C-alpha cells in the first residue's frame, strides 16, 4: 500500500486535487464525495482518519474536528488510473454537515 501511496503522491501535483468517495464500511452506503490533495491524502493514510481539501477555503480540514463526526478509515481503494479514491470508513455520529447520515439525500 505504501508504494501505491507514493505513486499517487507523485501523480498529484502541488495544487491538484482528486475526488474521494466516502463509503460506510459495513452497509456500503455512500456518505460523501470530497476532495484530497497530496497532504490530505498522506494525513488520512497515516492517521486513519479522513482529511479533505476544502475547495472554497483552500485548506485541508479534518472531518469531525469541530463536529465530532469522525470517520475512521478501514480501507483505501484506488481506481485503475490512480486518479480517484474510495475511503471505506466507520462513521462516528453523522457524516453530513446538515447533520444527516449521508450527504446524498435527494432522490429524483
UniProtKB/TrEMBL annotation:
Record has Lipid metabolism as a keyword: no
Claim: Amino-acid biosynthesis is one of the keywords in the record: yes
MF terms (GO), sorted A to Z: phosphoribosyl-AMP cyclohydrolase activity
Pathway(s) annotated for this protein in UniProt: Amino-acid biosynthesis; L-histidine biosynthesis; L-histidine from 5-phospho-alpha-D-ribose 1-diphosphate: step 3/9
Segment forming the signal sequence: none
Domain (Phosphoribosyl-AMP cyclohydrolase) ranges: 33-105
Protein name: phosphoribosyl-AMP cyclohydrolase
Organism this protein belongs to: Candidatus Carsonella ruddii CE isolate Thao2000
Lineage, uppermost ranks: Bacteria, Pseudomonadati, Pseudomonadota, Gammaproteobacteria, Oceanospirillales
Designated gene of the protein: hisI
Amino acid at each position: 500500500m505504501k508504494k501505491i501511496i507514493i505513486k499517487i503522491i507523485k501523480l498529484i501535483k502541488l495544487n491538484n486535487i482528486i475526488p474521494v468517495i466516502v463509503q460506510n464500511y459495513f452497509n456500503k452506503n455512500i456518505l460523501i464525495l470530497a476532495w484530497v490533495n497530496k497532504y490530505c491524502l498522506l494525513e488520512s493514510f497515516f492517521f486513519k482518519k479522513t482529511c479533505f481539501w476544502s475547495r472554497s477555503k483552500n485548506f485541508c480540514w479534518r472531518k469531525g474536528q469541530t463536529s465530532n463526526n469522525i470517520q475512521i478509515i478501514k480501507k483505501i481503494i484506488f481506481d485503475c488510473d490512480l486518479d480517484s479514491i474510495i475511503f471505506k470508513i466507520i462513521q462516528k455520529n453523522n457524516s453530513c454537515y446538515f447533520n444527516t447520515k449521508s450527504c446524498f439525500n435527494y432522490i429524483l
